[in-house]
């Protein structure tokens, strides 16, 4: 107890410093949201300066000696506290973040940010003209900087572990590889078995008037728990969700007359938004006040998009409404046909358009290639050929050009290596958590058919969302499901849904 009392001023001071950092991040997120949603194009350069200044201020504060001194003073308290308490978690997470920031010199951090901006601009042009050669020097530069970044940390069993750790605390390359090997071995034959089972889905190509799409998304989001008090939706070419601060959840979506992607993408972004929305308010303005990792975040976006949004119960509730919204296109299409079409398995070239069954293979090939690129087994000049060969092996498709191949994603231009695996780990985790929810909440499908989504949302809030970053990702999964991250339930789900 004496230790606790002695440490209280240090803990108060740490909280105050961390709250200031959180406030600066709040501003940084608003600038980012604005530049993607509403800023006039010509404002980009001035915005880059403003963002760079703010980012530098955050970095200086986050790596400052004061945080280190406070953490040192708080070490005895941390040993005394119940490890799962919010106070212990706050100190643990603050120490982890501080140590990782401190490891990277400021000039390297600045170089990484700067070269990302340049590489993304180059990627934009290269993608539009399907010109890999134009992007090649930028990818080489990004890899060189990433190797320097890896060199800032103590050696790991696999250097890729260091990159994974940025997004998925505690996850290792060996575990990802083992999970992905299991997935690949069963997904490839599953997809092979489904091939040729094509149903007519021409009605999914619309036209779906944009105003009516907005109305459809609004009805679904409101049934899920969206309210105008604390949420908003805007349009962007590349949808994302953002949560700058308490009571402020921002989703974006993209409407296209020729498909209904906006509806599924709205449900996906809702999943990201509702996770942040559900974090306990007392964790706001601390490093604990957000989702615990990229994979757990993606598990929730996938839950609302796929496990809810493509379920039979959901469509029993919503299909008649959707028919009334688009009478000309689907007025005559029976529900079973529509649901089958929205769940069709069709190997394609583009990751973001992939169905549930083929999605994992898009991620697995990226994971394999970025590991080979980083350790030098694969030269940048050979990436398109290696990409295309793997698309042929895994998906049975020929890649006609690099725009629809290696240039399709922005991630490597940004310098996001070690991030792709978290998308697929998210799919895996989504089914593990879902099974547990079904045991606790009862017949979810029947609830959805009645338009009841609150029981699921409240269960997820109680077991997953409210904890923020208190538990590292896999510990959270263990607490919710009683087991670590495991591909089996996800594979059983896919085989049950799409197998013969
Ligand atoms: Zn997502």
Description:
With 500 residues, this protein is mostly helical. The chain is built from 22 helices and three strands. α3 (65-80) runs antiparallel to α4 (86-103), α8 packs across α15 and α10 (261-278) crosses α11. The protein has helices at residues 2-37, 44-63, 65-80, 86-103, 106-129, 132-150, 159-167, 173-194, 210-224, 261-278, 294-308, 312-325, 327-330, 335-342, 356-374, 383-395, 411-414, 420-441, 444-449, 454-463, 473-481, 488-498, and strands at residues 231-235, 241-245, 248-253. It is 66% helix and 3% strand. β2 and β3 (248-253) form a beta hairpin. Strands 1-3-2 form a three-stranded mixed beta sheet, with helices on both faces. The longest helix has 36 residues, at 2-37. The chain binds zinc ion. Residues 268, 272, 298, 301 line the site of zinc ion. The site of zinc ion (ZN) has 4 residues, from α10 and α11.
Mean pLDDT reading: 94
Radius of gyration: 23 Å
In the sheet with the most strands, the strands line up as: 1-3-2
Shape: globular
Spatial separation of the terminal alpha carbons:
63 Å
The major sheet is characterized as: 3 strands, mixed
Helix content estimate: 55-70%
Helix/strand order? HHHHHHHHHEEEHHHHHHHHHHHHH
Bin the strand percentage: under 5%
What low-confidence regions span 5 or more consecutive residues with pLDDT below 50? none
Name the ligand types.
zinc ion
Quick one: how many beta strands? Answer: 3
- The structure class reads mainly alpha
Q: How many separate helices?
A: 22
Quick recap of the structure?
The protein has helices at 2-37, 44-63, 65-80, 86-103, 106-129, 132-150, 159-167, 173-194, 210-224, 261-278, 294-308, 312-325, 327-330, 335-342, 356-374, 383-395, 411-414, 420-441, 444-449, 454-463, 473-481, 488-498, and strands spanning 231-235, 241-245, 248-253. With 500 residues, it is mainly alpha-helical. Helix 3 packs antiparallel against helix 4, helix 5 packs antiparallel against helix 6 (132-150) and helix 15 packs antiparallel against helix 16 (383-395).
